[in-house]
Amino acid sequence: MNINLSIDVATTDNQTTLTIKGEIDAYTAPLLKEKLLPATAKEAEKIVVDLKDVTYMDSTGLGVFISALKSTKEHGSTLTLVNLQERVHRLFKITSLDSIISIDTTTRGGE
To answer: Is Phosphoprotein there in the keyword field (predicted)?
Structure first.
């Protein structure tokens, strides 16, 4: 099994940034959950997830973000997704998750 996902975690004062590269699916979602959920459990933590290099995501990935959102509500932290590619953003729109998860569409990586 080839896990095509890398996650870099950077932590500063009250902010955790996860930079994700690859595909989020049934095989890689557990790794994402393992890295993302502990950050959401920190009170008043701001979690930013950079999805610029995520080329594919399925419903399993959406489930991880829903779990993370629930955790932020319980712990008083916030979750923002940034730099979504169009096909990934479309998945959030189709499921109406873009109305409950903060997605910053103005922050685009322009390198």
So the answer is: yes
Q: Which helix (H) or strand (E) holds 86?
A: helix 86-94
CB 94 within 8 A of CB 61: no
How many alpha carbons fall within 13 Å on the CB side of residue 77?
23
- Do the beta carbons of residue 28 and residue 2 sit within 8 Å? no
Residues 62, 51: Cα–Cα separation, whole Å: 13
Give the tens place of pLDDT for each residue, 41-98.
999 999 999 999 999 999 999 999 999 999 999 999 999 999 999 999 999 999 999 9
- Domain-located, residue 111: no
- Cα distance between residue 92 and residue 98, in whole Å: 5
In a domain, 76, yes or no: yes
Q: Name the domain count of the chain.
A: 1
Residue type, 41: A
